[in-house]
């Protein structure tokens, strides 16, 4: 939807400043409240249209301590990450405001205009769709995304170029486009038209009007802090609990088979992961004592310790809680680690957070789609995702808990909380059933592995990884 | 002191593994306790001596989820940062273990051996001293630093090179040194001899012995978790409170003088900061309502919003509390921001934390030296530090608090806590007096600026910045 561009009126500057600061502090106070939000302001446009000046003026009117500005070096679209990924770390916490000069749109335009290998319109639109989906997830998670395009007609742009001191050409020229080249200008304008209609367009010709239009627009965005929907729509339809979860198979591997096979598979998995040009993400979920640690040990046994990263996911920190739920995973997956193993994962949202009430029904019910989109974008950008649920029976868990309590050097592994969690056993099974139902996708299916017998489980985990690496 | 290399004995592998895991979990449990610590393991050595293999073996014996490994690309020593700075973000939280393959020592050796511009012995030793000071600060702040050198004689190295498949030359070759060159080998060994004596040297010739020596050494380090000293030594000598703090001057700028001078100074400061090749760090301390926000606004008024970063320092997060106090500043100053402004700063340790009892006497008394070392290393690596204390009188603060309460759009700025802090006024003055006494150094002096009159204060702040930028 195109934003209503209201009848524009200049405001008294002092009044505008007072209102902005007021709104800024009100935003700050929403942190942790039911109307909490943060603001990302994406600033793009034609060179010399004055986006830098408008932000400068805005930062003078507001309290500059609570409006951060980032101007990253432009990046070209590459096969191995989404365009928004490098900027994920700048997503502000609730109550905060972040202006991004360099952002996923400037990178997209830059990539599309690249002389050597311009993007096709189809590719361009595909990237746009990916960004929109990401922005929708941001909005659902209390991050407002404000997109402003500073425009300038060809005529005025040329006049401004004429008036420029050549020594003043700045480092922030948009990807070194030639602003004297009419064809390039037209191409850029044509591409920009493909953006969604929720951009706010500001004509940069009149400087005073430009700065005020921008600031007033930000003001209206700051003032708009509605309460988040509290209740989920409709009734939740519980999926049926798979038999393998209720009664995991107890087949035991024969000891004489086990060792050589495990050894062979371990080497094979290491080789397969190492030689795969894609990144590999392996994640484990399952009840306590299901054997996640042991399975991980086998996966990494033949790897060099510098080749992989293990993330053990515990309760989020305060700074993570005030950002979109997936944020701590977006930022964890930005590194160059080719092989990432997660001991528990983003599925915490629909497992422990659902069962323990740490997230509201509206939040965990929304999470399935968010997680699917997230995984799809990873897969699309050359990542293999292997999702493993280790299924043990309630009796076997009890036996392992007791064995841990009886073994001096394993006693640390068992706490009161573990016993408490057991009481929620059936709730966890229900949550797991819904999770399989909604997130077992073609590109990232779940592998449910019976693990009452540790040896069989380890072998099956390795086989699942191999299967998925070769399946695609 | 050279570590005692005890009579070495091979242990049963299973036993070693059990003991390591046990010690690992004990370390984890120290988090937040009086014997809390974390472990950084620096791994360096001769190529093919087997440091990778030894760490791999260690990670098999321990629970790999709780032993992280980082192998960063080597960096050469540059003028603008200390060698440890790029690695500061990897400093583990209490209870954690981090192995660093790439680290400040590999970078130092790489820089020293650089064919084009090798470091002189004097430069080398200077870097070494800087690292030692840093490591001492880590140790004082509960981060144990374990340094292991994997050694290999020239003869064995050559034999191993002979046996190598040429296609197996790895990416982790140490800075592309030529390991067939005897002279280079000798130079490296000569340089390594200059290291301090707290390195643990492992001969890489015998593989089994190598792995066990390494693991047993880590085991002994893990087991050693003594309580931190609780009490400060000796009596604290309170510095005299400067007259300017007790009774800040109330001289008012004449309104007709003020505006043009402020404008001129604002432009001059912006120009000076921009044209200075060094980084600029400006920090503000002072009582609530002393005018920090207003002063910052004037400093940045003529800057492009992309040129500077403002850090507003509030209470630390949990993940920051479990690391050395200065950690959150080390990591904040790693960016390429040329101009950084701190609204409150690392001096919180000796101000609010001291007064409110958030840090123990032994911690805040130690902090003066830590802060001085930190600032010295910044100054040495081309950063100007401007430290400003805005001094207001108790009456003026009361007047400002009341004015805020009476102004609707400023009411948010004043809370119960602000009034409570006032009751500690004298304690804060004492803490400030000690801070000036111990941290006003030649390279980073304190500027105490009377700010009962806001206009005068803003002018004086700008003058102080100019003075310090030109003074050096």
Short description:
With 472 residues, chain A is of the alpha/beta class.
Could you walk me through the main structural features you see in this protein, from its secondary elements to its overall organization?
With 472 residues, chain A is α/β, with parallel strands linked by helices. Chain A has helices at residues 13-29, 51-61, 104-113, 121-140, 154-163, 182-193, 207-223, 243-246, 255-275, 292-300, 318-321, 327-332, 352-355, 361-380, 394-406, 416-422, 425-439, 454-471; strands spanning 38-45, 68-70, 97-100, 143-151, 199-203, 279-286, 308-312, 339-343, 383-391, 446-450. In chain A, strands 2-3-1-4-5 form a 5-stranded parallel sheet, sandwiched between helices. In chain A, helix 3 (104-113) runs antiparallel to helix 4 (121-140) and helix 9 (255-275) packs parallel to helix 18 (454-471). At the A-B interface, helix 1, helix 2, helix 10 and strand 7 of A face helix 1, helix 2, helix 10 and strand 7 of B.
């Amino acid at each position: 939807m195109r934003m209503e561009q209201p009848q524009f009126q200049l405001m008294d500057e002092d009044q505008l400043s007072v209102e902005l600061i007021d709104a800024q502090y009100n935003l700050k106070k929403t942190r942790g409240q039911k109307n909490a939000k943060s603001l990302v302001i994406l600033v793009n446009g034609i060179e010399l249209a004055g986006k830098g000046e408008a932000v400068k003026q805005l930062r003078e009117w507001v309290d500059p301590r609570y409006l951060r500005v980032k101007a990253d070096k432009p990046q070209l679209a590459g096969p191995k990450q989404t365009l928004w990924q490098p900027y994920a770390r700048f997503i502000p916490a609730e109550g905060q405001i972040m202006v991004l000069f360099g952002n996923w749109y400037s990178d997209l335009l830059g990539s599309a205009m690249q002389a050597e290998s311009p993007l096709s319109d189809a590719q361009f639109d595909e990237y746009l769709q990916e960004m929109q989906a990401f922005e929708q997830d941001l909005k659902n998670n209390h991050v407002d995304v404000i997109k402003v395009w500073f425009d300038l007609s060809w005529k005025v742009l040329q006049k401004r170029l004429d008036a420029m001191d050549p020594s003043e050409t700045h480092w922030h020229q948009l990807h070194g486009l030639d602003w004297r080249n009419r064809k390039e200008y037209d191409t850029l304008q044509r591409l920009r038209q493909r953006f969604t209609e929720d951009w706010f367009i500001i004509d940069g010709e009149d400087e005073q009007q430009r700065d005020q239009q921008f600031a007033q627009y930000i003001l209206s965005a700051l003032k708009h802090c509605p309460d988040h929907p509290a209740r989920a729509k409709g009734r939740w339809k519980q999926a049926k609990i798979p038999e393998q979860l209720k009664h995991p198979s107890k087949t035991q591997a024969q000891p004489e088979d086990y060792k050589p096979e495990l050894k062979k598979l371990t080497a094979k998995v290491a080789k397969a992961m190492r030689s795969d040009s894609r990144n590999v993400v392996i994640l484990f979920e399952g009840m306590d004592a299901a054997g996640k640690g042991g399975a991980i040990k086998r996966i990494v046994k033949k790897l060099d310790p510098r080749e992989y990263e293990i993330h053990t996911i515990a309760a989020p920190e305060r700074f993570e809680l005030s950002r979109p739920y997936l944020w701590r995973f977006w930022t964890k997956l930005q590194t160059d680690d080719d092989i990432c193993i997660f001991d528990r994962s983003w599925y915490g949202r629909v497992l422990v957070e659902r069962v323990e009430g740490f997230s509201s029904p509206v939040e965990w019910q929304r999470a399935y789609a968010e997680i699917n989109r997230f995984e799809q974008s990873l897969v699309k950008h050359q990542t293999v995702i292997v999702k493993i649920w280790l299924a043990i029976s309630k009796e076997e868990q009890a036996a392992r808990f007791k064995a841990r309590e009886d073994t001096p050097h394993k006693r640390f592994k068992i706490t009161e909380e573990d016993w408490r969690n057991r009481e929620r056993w059936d709730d966890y099974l229900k949550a797991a059933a819904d999770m399989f139902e909604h997130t077992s996708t073609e590109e990232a299916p779940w592998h449910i592995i019976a693990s009452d017998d540790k040896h069989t489980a380890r072998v099956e985990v390795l086989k699942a990884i191999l299967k998925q690496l070769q399946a695609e």
